[in-house]
């Protein structure tokens, strides 16, 4: 699902619905999901799986407009984390039937090694 926009080195590897860290280090991690849904609240959770455990790195929750023509809102979060080789990062949408806008400028996951 994740398409690399810029390839430089081999520090990250898309793996199904997640991203595997190949090069350990400190990263700026950022994520945004653009929702197009009338459900009262929508959100995202960014989690890391590695070293035998799963951990939530950050989460975001947004209220949604109730009118279908205005039911757009984005959830953006960012943070700096030490990531280990082999960690798998994924974005989880807690609502099973959430309506998302998957345009590249609306929904994305990004990393910058610091």
Describe the 3D structure.
InterPro entries: TNF_CS, TNF_dom, TNF_Ligand_Superfamily, Tumour_necrosis_fac-like_dom. This is TNF superfamily member 13. The structure is a single chain. With 114 residues, this protein is mostly beta strands. The mean pLDDT is 89. The chain contains no helices and nine strands. Strand 4 (41-50) and strand 5 (53-63) form a beta hairpin. The chain has a five-stranded antiparallel beta sheet, with no helix packed on it. Strands 3, 6, 8 and 9 form a four-stranded antiparallel beta sheet that branches. Helix content is 0%, strand content 58%. The protein has a single domain, classed as Jelly Rolls, CATH 2.60.120. It has strands at 12-15, 18-21, 25-36, 41-50, 53-63, 72-83, 88-92, 100-101, 108-113.
Count up the helices.
0
Strand ordering within the main sheet: 1-2-7-4-5
Strand content: over 45%
**What is the architecture at the second tier of CATH?**
Sandwich
- What is the molecular shape? elongated
Biggest β-sheet strands, sense, barrel: 5 strands, antiparallel
What is the arithmetic mean of pLDDT?
89
Low-confidence stretches: none
- Rg, alpha carbons: 15 Å
Report the CATH topology name: Jelly Rolls
- Provide the succession of SSEs: EEEEEEEEE
The N- to C-terminal Cα distance equals 25 Å
Kindly give the count of domains.
Answer: 1
User: Which class best fits the helix and strand makeup?
Assistant: mainly beta
Classify the helix fraction into a percent range. under 10%
Tell me, what is the CATH class?
Mainly Beta
Subcellular location: Secreted
InterPro entries: TNF_CS (IPR021184), TNF_dom (IPR006052), TNF_Ligand_Superfamily (IPR051748), Tumour_necrosis_fac-like_dom (IPR008983)
Organism: Homo sapiens (Human)
GO molecular function, one term: cytokine activity
